[in-house]
Amino acid sequence: MKMKVINTFKLVIPTLYLSMSFxxxxxxxxxxxxxxxxxxxxxxxxVVTSPVTVRFGLSGMGVAPAGVDRENTGHHHLLIDVETLPxxxxxxxxxxxxxxxxxxxxxxxxxxxxxxxxxxxxxxxxSHIPHNPSVLSEPIIITVE
Length: 145
Ligand SMILES: [Cu+2]
Fold this sequence. Notes:
single chain, alpha+beta, Immunoglobulin-like, 6-stranded mixed sheet, 9 strands, binds copper (II) ion
């Protein structure tokens, strides 16, 4: 009788463990608490000339190229003039307003038209899905002369 109880536990525990791992890895990847992404330069409110070099900062996490499933890492996405944030449970769109840096780049040189532009960084995991909670920078507004 005692043996039977133990055997049941031996089956239940790995099953629970497996279903929990599946839940964790099936959706957005969790992150370390306090991870932050931010635009190092230009500064918010800066008046610049095109082309503009935008430098990306990340703390509390590491940068890894797209496709590399490594814990507590992601790659940068620059949202250019995006007012409505993308769906945080799905891969970040890829177009001229949602730029992916899947090679693990930490800066970009942008050709921007004269006028105001809004820039914001969003980290995505190996499959381009934001983490949970998402790692999103404060937006900056720059003026291109
Ligand atoms: Cu991406």
